[in-house]
Design a protein that fits this description.
single chain; 187 residues; mainly beta; 5-stranded mixed beta barrel
């Protein structure tokens, strides 16, 4: 009976991570469990499409099949030191210890905070929306060989169409006569 009870007590353990290795197909963690027992190379089972490498000191829950601590799996690893608090019911967040986050807020809003946001796409990035607002406190730079617009381009005082009309109809007052409009028009 004592042997069965030990197996049951050894099924699940809680501890904290002391090191990690993400180089293999399945990331492995070393954890220090309650009572000071240390286990190395425990595979961490992660959800498909999601991966993270927890920091040392993060918490983990390990499952030891049949109560045998020679081969366990980490079911979950979390870190309360950096967890985003005060989410509303139904909200979801991805975060780091450096303060970066993506929060899927209520009302179909996504809130992103990071120092630098980089998107790499081999072919195209397409944004489909009714209105796109870009606010940059220092400037905006488009490093591209061609910038196209299918609609009007406007600043605080004029549009490209207005500038084109003014140029195509302008004249100069030279030597007491007025020149003709330019023979090379802006189209």
């Amino acid at each position: 009976m004592r042997q069965v009870l030990n197996k049951i007590m050894n099924l699940v353990s809680r501890g904290y991570i002391t090191s990690s290795n993400s180089a293999s197909k399945c990331q492995t963690l070393q954890i220090k469990m309650s009572g000071g027992e240390q286990k190395s190379d425990i595979e961490q089972i992660e959800s498909y499409g999601f991966t993270s490498r927890p920091l040392d000191g993060a918490e983990a829950v390990a499952l030891f099949l049949d109560g045998d601590k020679s081969h366990g799996v980490i079911l979950v690893a979390g870190d309360r030191r950096y967890r985003i608090k005060s989410l509303k019911q139904g909200e979801v967040a991805i975060y780091t210890d450096e303060g970066d986050y993506i929060i899927f807020n209520r009302n179909n809003e996504i809130n992103v905070k990071t120092k630098k946001f980089i998107v790499n796409a081999d072919d195209a990035i397409e944004l489909n929306t009714k209105n796109l607002v870009v606010k940059a406190s220092v400037g905006t730079n488009f490093a591209t060989p061609l910038l196209k617009s299918t609609g009007e381009i406007e600043d605080q005082t004029s549009t490209i169409s207005d500038i084109r009309t003014i140029y195509n109809e302008h004249t100069h007052n030279e030597t007491n006569s007025i020149t003709h409009v330019p023979n090379q028009r802006l189209e």
